[in-house]
Amino acid sequence: MIITIDGPAGAGKSTISQEFAKAINYDVLDTGAMYRCVAYIKKESALSLNDALFQQKILDMNIVFQNHEIFLNGKNVTKEIRTPAIDIITSVEVSPHYFVRSEMCNLQRKMAQDKNMVVEGRDMGSNVFPDSPLKFYLTANSQVRAERRYNQLLEKNIHKDLKELEKEIEKRDYEDMNRVHNPLCIPEGAHIIDTSDLSLQEVLQKMLEIFQQIL
Length: 215
Hints:
It contains nine helices and eight strands. The chain is of the alpha/beta class and about 220 residues long. It has one domain: Rossmann fold.
């Protein structure tokens, strides 16, 4: 069974998906990390997204998730794809691009085929796996999401202005919700959970209760 978790940046999707998948003994697919891998290739190659060579690199790339780490073509890129520079390339250039979204969609379906898997992203329940029997949509207000991002960056010794982070998140929301191809939206039939005032354990408990009801 495929379980989808969608929502805007900073809503807690990545952390929750890992914990939820662990609790129900499912595999997990971090699709946001996949787009970040594409952004990493873009940054390292300095090629245009429309360049035939770049697009072949995307067709040939190999992404492996192992022990909470991400390997791209055999290289551990877990830290490299979580930088502010990759954030910008992912949101501004990579995510809206039709070829990239199309190929990522194909790859995500292939990676999840015949598996019990939790998949998280921005169009999982609405586009990639619209027939999923269980869909979640996690959200939170922009201030809370900015604070979470601020703390994540501090752990990496990266210092950014909190207000500036909130503006960036609101800008990302607008871009995600208004892009031409597969915009961020609440999937039909999704269970909406606002994580603004909830702890990780409280969100997890809500999701597990819904999962049990579906079973």
